[in-house]
Amino acid sequence: MTAQQHIFKYTKPFLTESGATLNSFELAYTTLGTLNATQDNVVWVCHAFSGNDNVLDWWPGLFGEGKLYDPARDFIVCANMLGSCYGSTGPLSTNTETGQPYFHDFPVLTNRDIIGAFDLLRADLGLKKIQQLIGCSLGGQQALEWTISRPEVIQNLICIGASAKHSPWGIAFNQTQRMAIEQDPSWQERQPEAGLSGLKTARAVAMLSYRNYQTYLATQQDPDDDKLENFRACSYQEYQGEKLVKRFNAFSYWYLSKAMDSQNIGRKRGTLEAVLSAINIPCLYIGLSSDILFPIEEQQFLAKHTPQAHYSEIDSLYGHDGFLIESVQLTEAITKYYESISVLKTK
Question: Which of 240, 260, 280 is the C-terminal boundary of a domain?
């Protein structure tokens, strides 16, 4: 089983919600499996904040041979979002107008812009419908937005650890991370490594929102009661920051955090409740019991106001990161949901 990576090139001007225009863009995307003759086996995945387009890299518990979503049966598509750094157009890409990388001049993107690019890819692939759309975290925000924007396309939504509108709490976390990047003296430089020291701190801050008090208590407690410094929690924060800067850049981090902040399905549409009430497809909203970044009240709100909604809660020690870890519980919750709406896939 091999993931096939492709590049979608869009050569027309792409107007963003902010009013800025990308003269063209590229999306890196990966496919697994084969599209069947009736095109009713499409599973589209919207990845999380620092994820990529290969679900086998970061969600092997749900995708792969013998898993809930199996390439032997499903045609699985995942595209790297605009603004990211895994092959799609982002801040380090060349601005065709100047011949130089965008860096700080990259346009501010919203989730509506990102799913607008996804939908152009979908059309290019000749997919009239997406039978199963699944997204987590920032990807869950995008999946919800896509469902609302293209109700004739999306047939079924599974939205994990996401919200209708990003909270002041979540925005404050993101702003604090951007402030950390701003404090890096190199951030104003127009070069790919700009802001990496600040990014390291930003990621350490983010970990506090991805996990929680109980997670750290269970995993980062020091057995040595006589220790005065160099605690496990200290080295853990350093490690997480260093790990991210080896695979990401401060520019993409900056812009994707802005995209997360932009989430508001009611913008120019009406109240959140009214927008959700117009969704006319089955939806499964999944909350994570110890999530402090997207607390379960946000997924319960989505379920309360969506007519054909189902709600499931995953009991996890790992907070928001539970969507990456609790594969067994997620598989059980999604399978039960499919059974309840009579679309259980045959093995």
Answer: 260
- Residues 176-208: tens digit of each pLDDT: 999 999 999 999 999 999 999 999 999 999 999
Q: Would residue 50 show up in a list of annotated catalytic residues for this protein?
A: no
Question: What secondary structure letter does DSSP report for 165?
Answer: B
Cα(274)–Cα(266) distance, rounded to whole angstroms?
Answer: 8
Residue with tokens 């902040």: 261
Number of domains observed in the structure of the chain: 2
Distance CA(279)–CA(150), nearest Å, equals 10
Contact criterion met (CB below 8 Å) for 203 and 240: yes
CATH number at residue 233: 1.10.1740.110
Q: What is the pLDDT of residues 59-108, one digit of tens each?
A: 999 999 999 999 999 999 999 999 999 999 999 999 999 999 999 999 99
Residue list for the binding site: 203, 321
Buried b (16+ CB within 10 A) or exposed e, 76-111: bbbbbbbbbbbbbbbbebebeeeeebbbeebbbbbb
Whether residue 51 contacts residue 30, with contact meaning beta carbons closer than 8 Å, is answered with no
At residue 14 the predicted structure's pLDDT band, cuts being 50, 70 and 90, is very high
Find tokens 């000749």 and name the residue.
126
Binding residues for substrate: 203, 321
For the chain, the farthest-separated pair of C-alpha atoms sits apart, in whole angstroms, at 67
Choose the catalytic residue: 209, 291, 305, 316: 291
47 is catalytic: no
Question: Which residues constitute the domain of residue 102?
Answer: 4-166+264-340
- 262 as an active site residue: the answer is no
Least Cα distance to 141 among 127, 126, 161, 125 occurs for 161
Q: What CATH number does the domain containing 97 carry? A: 3.40.50.1820
Kindly name the residue from 50, 84, 88, 137 that is annotated as catalytic: 137
